[in-house]
Design brief:
Elements: H1 2-19, E1 51-60, E2 65-71, E3 86-91, E4 97-102, E5 114-115, E6 126-130, E7 135-139, E8 144-145, E9 167-173, E10 176-181, E11 185-191, E12 197-199, E13 204-206, E14 215-221, E15 227-230, E16 233-235, E17 240-242, E18 256-258, E19 265-270, E20 276-280, E21 285-287, H2 291-295, H3 298-307
Antiparallel strand pairs: 1-2, 2-3, 3-4, 5-6, 6-7, 7-8, 9-10, 10-11, 11-12, 13-14, 14-15, 16-17, 18-19, 19-20, 20-21
């Protein structure tokens, strides 16, 4: 009897075990994630062996480079002293020299090269260097110096004195180098994707009679096939350079042609429509054309503009 009771208890126990739900661990299996933590770059405060003028050292933050134009014993002139023309670039991670070149004498041994006077940002691919009558560009990414750029003008310039042609301002604007030279006016260079620079001549230029001043109108291609017009100006007294862009944003030109190139007014007209706009080069501003003026032929409109002042 006991054997029967024992067997019955075992069967009941087994049945309960089979009907009981099994506990399943739903927690995901933790895999060892291989995380490669990027170590922070430690930048050093690099120094240079030589004398450096104010404004001739700058840090290129995103590229971890520091650039300087200095004078040392290798360029010292026996009569004129320091010659600031040794371009040196160091890697800020270890202060090793990654580029160095001695620039040619800048008209005179004591006339220093200068980093172009503008506010650089981290997106610009070059550092512009202002010489007496030439501009150099250091290619930050490729760590090299581009061929010297000499300003070119649409009309011949005549020297007024020994300082004529001296570059007093240079700045980068998008892919363009824009500068001003004494008694010669504004000049522009375009840097292409191959890091080659070519001179961009003005679309129109006006020189008031009896003066040595030039108002040069540049039409510079921008993004998305659009164009921006500007008439740069340098104020000698204030030592201030302004680009004078004529539109709030670049515009799209389809079939526009310039009618006048060497007079006070530059007239642009669309060959396929009556759309036209005019620019007063002397005032460096757009002309507010009336509906009647827009209805005139380009020749009639230009004649009217020239006769009004």
């Amino acid at each position: 009897m006991r054997s029967i009771l024992y067997l019955l208890c075992c069967l009941i126990f087994l049945a309960c075990q089979e009907s009981s739900p099994k506990t399943v661990d739903t927690k995901p299996i933790k895999e060892k994630a291989e995380v490669s933590e990027k170590k922070p770059v430690i930048l050093k405060d690099c120094t240079f062996d030589g004398n450096i003028n104010d404004g001739n050292q700058m840090t290129l933050e995103n590229q971890h480079q520091v650039l300087a134009i200095l004078a040392n014993e290798s360029t010292k002139d026996a009569n004129l002293g320091d010659s600031h023309r040794v371009l040196t670039v160091k890697d800020q991670t270890d202060c090793s020299v990654i580029f160095q070149e001695t620039l040619p004498i800048n008209r005179s041994a004591d006339f220093p090269y200068q980093i172009a006077d503008l506010n650089y940002n981290n997106t610009q691919p070059f550092v512009a260097i202002k010489g007496y009558d030439k501009v150099y560009c250091y290619d930050i990414k490729n760590k090299k110096l581009l061929t010297a750029l000499e300003p070119k003008y649409i009309n011949q310039r005549e020297a007024k004195d020994a300082q004529s042609g001296q570059i007093v301002h240079v700045e980068l604007w998008e892919d363009y180098i824009i500068g001003y030279a004494l008694d010669a006016g504004t000049f522009v260079f375009k840097i292409d994707e191959r890091n080659l620079a070519k001179a961009i001549l003005p679309t129109a230029e006006y020189q008031p009679q009896g003066t040595d001043k030039y108002a040069s109108l540049f039409s510079l291609p921008s993004l998305n096939g659009k164009t921006q017009f500007l008439i740069p100006q340098y104020d000698k007294l204030e030592k201030r350079f302004t680009l004078n862009t004529l539109f709030k944003a670049p515009i799209r030109l389809k079939n526009s042609i310039v009618i006048s190139k060497d007079q006070r007014y530059a007239l642009f007209t669309d060959q396929l429509s009556s759309n036209a706009f005019a620019i007063d080069l002397l005032k460096r501003a757009m002309v507010d054309l009336t509906t009647d003026q827009r209805a005139k032929s380009p020749k009639q409109l230009l004649k009217q503009l020239q006769n009004r002042n």
